[in-house]
User: Which sequence fits this backbone?
């Protein structure tokens, strides 16, 4: 697809998709889910596994690894349109994350995704279509724990 | 765990201090485990035929997995017990195939503001061929 053809999609998605918001999804963060996530990454810090140890730290209990906000975004992101039939190759290019508070075992986190931006840029494989989604995550006390901007490219 | 290189206070740190390099192997089994543990079932990470049909040599490592290992390189050195990973920006420059991965970086700046000490870092990850696959910036906020 050339730049002009791709721009037709950019213009259409700017009108139709930017600003769309997913249904919020609330997940109770279980200690077992944190331990499984941490183990799959090769983490060894007992903060992620050992409640007795974690209780002695400033957190007062088990916390999740810094990339745990990603655990909660797959489902809500799929509540937004992203597919472009003619561009079948998809890659993930950027994650930009504000993470003011650690996520703790026992938290109830509500995630909402918003289709934030669409643009094109010339890449290794010609003109490529970029889409940015912002996922906001709030805990049971209405505190914002993370805002994740995830950018993907299609070509 | 090996805590030999662990920092116990921000006063042990200065711009230019190097993150101890963390090197490991990522297998396709690790990817499947990460799919389950992270609830991320994007086909790129487990469906070999799908990837071949789309012009790739095979399944690729989740960007979030690579960055999760980059975070570990930092938090094994400056533990979560003393600092929060309060911000990060990650760029995936090229796809990472299962195999060797090494991660490192350095402290670029230390600031003290409103009674909070922060350290900014620049991080990198390289694949088994030595190619730079991923770069990131990170801010640690000290307790």
Assistant:
């Amino acid at each position: 697809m050339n730049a002009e053809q791709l721009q037709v999609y950019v213009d259409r998605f700017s009108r139709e998709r930017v600003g769309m918001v997913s249904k919020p999804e609330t997940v109770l963060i279980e200690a077992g889910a944190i331990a499984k996530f941490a183990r799959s990454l090769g983490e060894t810090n007992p903060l992620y596994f050992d409640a007795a140890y974690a209780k002695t730290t400033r957190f007062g209990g088990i916390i999740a690894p810094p990339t745990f906000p990603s655990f909660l975004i797959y489902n809500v992101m799929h509540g937004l349109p992203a597919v472009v039939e003619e561009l079948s190759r998809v890659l993930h290019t950027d994650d930009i994350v504000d993470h003011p508070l650690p996520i703790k075992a026992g938290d109830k986190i509500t995630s909402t995704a918003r289709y934030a931006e669409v643009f094109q840029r010339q890449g290794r494989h010609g003109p490529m279509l970029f889409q940015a989604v912002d996922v906001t995550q709030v805990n049971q006390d209405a505190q914002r724990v993370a805002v994740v901007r995830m950018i993907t490219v299609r070509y | 765990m090996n805590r030999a290189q662990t920092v116990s206070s921000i006063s042990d740190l200065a711009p230019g201090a190097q993150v101890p390099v963390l090197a490991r192997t990522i297998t396709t089994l690790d990817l499947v485990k990460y799919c389950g543990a992270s609830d991320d079932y994007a086909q790129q990470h487990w469906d070999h035929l799908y990837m071949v049909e789309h012009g790739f040599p095979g399944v690729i490592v989740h960007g979030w997995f690579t960055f999760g290992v980059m975070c570990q390189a930092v938090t094994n050195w400056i533990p979560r017990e003393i600092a929060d990973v309060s911000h990060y920006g990650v760029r995936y420059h090229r796809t990472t195939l299962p195999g060797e991965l090494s991660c490192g970086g350095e402290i670029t700046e230390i600031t003290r503001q409103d009674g909070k000490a922060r350290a900014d870092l620049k991080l990198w990850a390289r694949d088994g061929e030595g190619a730079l696959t991923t770069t990131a910036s990170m801010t640690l906020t000290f307790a």
Remarks:
- The beta strands of chain A are 25-28, 90-98, 108-123, 126-138, 144-154.
- The mean pLDDT of chain A is 94.
- The interface with chain B takes residues 33, 36-37, 39-47, 57-58, 63, 65-67, 70-72, 74-75, 88-102 of chain A (CB under 8 Å).
- Helices of chain A lie at 3-16, 31-41, 51-55, 73-77.
